[in-house]
Predict the structure of Succinyl-CoA:acetate CoA-transferase.
Amino acid sequence: MHQDRVRRSDLRDLVVSAEEAARLIKDGMTVGMSGFTRAGEAKAVPMALAERARTEPLKITLITGASLGNDLDKTLAEAHVLARRLPFQSDPALRKAINNGEVMFIDQHLSETVELLRSRQMGPVDIAVIEAVAITEEGGIVPTTSVGNSASFAILAEKVIVEINLSQPAALEGLHDIYIPTHRPAREPIPIVAPQSRIGLPFIPVDPGKIAAIVITTKLDSSSSVLPPDAETRAIAGHLTEFFLHEVKKGRLTERLQPLQAGIGTIANAVLHGLIDTPFHNLTMYSEVLQDSTFDLFDAGKLDFASGSSITLSAAKYQVVLPELPRYKQRLILRPQEISNHPEVVRRLGIIGINTALEFDIYGNINSTHVGGTHMMNGIGGSGDFARNAYLSVFVTKSTAKDGFVSSVVPMVSHVDHTEHDVDLVVTEIGLADLRGLAPRERARLIIANCAHPAYRDALSDYYRRALARGGHTPHVIEEALSWHAKLRECGSMQSEPASVSAQSLAG
Amino acid sequence: MHQDRVRRSDLRDLVVSAEEAARLIKDGMTVGMSGFTRAGEAKAVPMALAERARTEPLKITLITGASLGNDLDKTLAEAHVLARRLPFQSDPALRKAINNGEVMFIDQHLSETVELLRSRQMGPVDIAVIEAVAITEEGGIVPTTSVGNSASFAILAEKVIVEINLSQPAALEGLHDIYIPTHRPAREPIPIVAPQSRIGLPFIPVDPGKIAAIVITTKLDSSSSVLPPDAETRAIAGHLTEFFLHEVKKGRLTERLQPLQAGIGTIANAVLHGLIDTPFHNLTMYSEVLQDSTFDLFDAGKLDFASGSSITLSAAKYQVVLPELPRYKQRLILRPQEISNHPEVVRRLGIIGINTALEFDIYGNINSTHVGGTHMMNGIGGSGDFARNAYLSVFVTKSTAKDGFVSSVVPMVSHVDHTEHDVDLVVTEIGLADLRGLAPRERARLIIANCAHPAYRDALSDYYRRALARGGHTPHVIEEALSWHAKLRECGSMQSEPASVSAQSLAG
Ligand SMILES: CC(C)(COP(=O)(O)OP(=O)(O)OC[C@H]1O[C@@H](n2cnc3c(N)ncnc32)[C@H](O)[C@@H]1OP(=O)(O)O)[C@@H](O)C(=O)NCCC(=O)NCCS
Ligand SMILES: CC(C)(COP(=O)(O)OP(=O)(O)OC[C@H]1O[C@@H](n2cnc3c(N)ncnc32)[C@H](O)[C@@H]1OP(=O)(O)O)[C@@H](O)C(=O)NCCC(=O)NCCS
């Protein structure tokens, strides 16, 4: 059966077991694997590595596009295979290994990893392991449900292992647009001028002589862990819709809005989903991961085109979308994450970027990664690539977390991923603050009034009042600025009287 | 005499006094003025505004390129003319008004201001006031020693006041390259592929009907306040040179390096100056402000070409360079700051960006703006435009400030302008830390060992050790993370025993 998938016949002799292919990977190597937000990861070789690590010393640097599915990051972390891991992850077991210092995690803007490899400021990549639906007659590798960093890994690595996944529909071929920027300083402009611009090849061009092994697999992508919209995420979407309507009325946006980007996770997905019941139409997306909401918007006739770097769906949506791929295909492109997230393109297209915060402060600085200022959640991902260069940079979060014991609006964020300069709007279920053109003191008043949960509003106002008395462009009571986080760590709550905000009262 | 400067004859009737021109500016207006890092600012009209504010209510929003010379920001602040000020300043009196909350200051990435005006997310600009050497036959405005935001101000404003400065040499004409990006989402790539790319017009194209008044002036630009290199800045330059040599040896850089950007201020100027006595050659600059060091490098035969948005020189250098402009001109371009700082171009050219920190923390986060986390110094300026998109992002600072009572390396920065993700190297006179590809725990060890002043090294190590015991990807003793700043505020020093680091001991 894999004959029609490995179309270059002289490569068919390279088909081996995962164990055999994995043997090409030696202790201490740097390995670049496909996989982006649980889509299109190599599935068999990493399992074989974890298995091998039971009986022999094996530690590698693992670079991917973004997070892996099928519990691979968990399996690899628990097998202690990972010495270093970059540029993103979202697995609880790996997170634990990172936070206890076992795995050195390099949290990077997703557009930058291959730039650093290409200029040899990191690396080199010894071996690339790439999931593919096919190898073409020329030896080109056709990726599956994600492109991520696969193209540059395959081009830069000394050897390439290809996992041909027979469960991934052959119809994926033609979806990808592989374009690799030239070397600097002699680089040319990236010729994308719209989400639908096709500028590259439908496969990854590699010297077939570098393909060292081919493994046949059948395991499916894991489904997305995103939860369906709830009352709070619907409220967030509602505030944002109202804002967009206002911008249209002011003539600053049309009803087509601008190309949309939405971050990973439950909240961003819900916000995008919320656009279904609005007057906006003929929308486009220039994003990173295409979630359920992208296809809901297609089906609702709201979306004209979507460009991303991966497709990550819930189990139910997966069942519907993948067989229908030929129908969706002409309105979809998957690109290398360097291109989907490229500052040049994001700025040029004028993207509306919607990303998620763990917490933000009264001045609009954003923490998306570090719980309590110290413990890594997932990583900055592409949020910085988009927020810095967006036409409109939006950050969303629920106003509280952990049953209300944590306020997501704080005096000072305990870690900064996005500075006040890169944040135009912040939105919680309580309301929206439009920070454009405002000085820090003006932002503080608006954020406290519009976005903070009522249970924390007075404490924030009190902090701000006392900070103001000390003066400064960005007033703070510096010895108290992180006291909410210190208290959370000590008492498990940011509340003076923990009982006053219960899950109950929040739901009401 | 101004006949040859106002070459379009029908505009000559518009010549009026500064007071008369200033009367076009009404209370409450938004005014866009030329001026970038003390170069090429409109000089007469703002003085007339300050004068008028003595006798009538007059508050405006003042937008410029960057900082103004000739004490204009001081004069305007002290006359209480400024309600809002953006996107940058560097004047002690204005700084005071900002920090006490009298002036609302919007601290912005310098590439973004006109993007926000163009999309009407800020503004509108009622009047532009632009210093020029000439108005062409077509009515085009030829700027003087800076372009800054002048082109977009003139194009977007309803009315334009031109200050023809007879002291600015006519030879400035031909130096400028005015290119304005098209509207989004239908924008085309910016066709710059090298520092010397010329892509626009040598003047600002405006409808001559919008020119409402012309004022004749003769005041010179003020000279730069940059101090000459000292032992510490020379040491910083030395560490960086050594690093570049190492990169050349590794084959990651050539002896031409990559196009250079250097931030404002004494330290960045000194670092650039330090390249004179190195083997590097045929260098280029793609920067923002061209300081003395640019011309020193030209004269030393080290520099082939320099692109910037302004020329800001010491008094001595001014005397030499301006008369010799025709000789330098073919190797110089001045661009709109949107273009000199554009993420698209910065990333494409692969710039080495050298910017200055007030302080950085053990994990490589940078504070360039807020003293003690609260009080604005100057603003983020273009540092973010460059640092985020650079090939190599370098931050420099002396290891201590205020006679050694302040450590510039701290457990946690009190304000973040540049996150760990945007910082490749940090350098003090003590040494250099190469952070590329390192996780936070690895960075901390390197920064403490290589960059911290010996007087603070043990205290930093002690903090880090105790933080490590608590775990986390970025370990902190959260309740103590800002205690160094709290102490400074309370006791005027970060030292346990202030006497132990004196100016004396630091100089030795
Ligand atoms: C920030 C981020 C973690 C939010 O994820 P989400 O699924 O939308 O949001 P949730 O509200 O479900 O929060 C996820 C978890 O963080 C916790 N959390 C949220 N806010 C918190 C806070 N202020 N303090 C502590 N924990 C918090 C939640 O309780 C939840 O914990 P659980 O998994 O134990 O239930 C996620 O969007 C992210 O990793 N972003 C950074 C990368 C990024 O933006 N990439 C997109 C670019 S395309
Ligand atoms: C950071 C910046 C203020 C440093 O300026 P500089 O002239 O090179 O450096 P100096 O060491 O002389 O420091 C300037 C002042 O800050 C003070 N300072 C430096 N570090 C400090 C610290 N950690 N805490 C408090 N004050 C500090 C110095 O004592 C000095 O004070 P003074 O003016 O009262 O003498 C300046 O580069 C800046 O504003 N940068 C931000 C904008 C930018 O980078 N633009 C360039 C992009 S092109």
The mean pLDDT of chain A is 95.
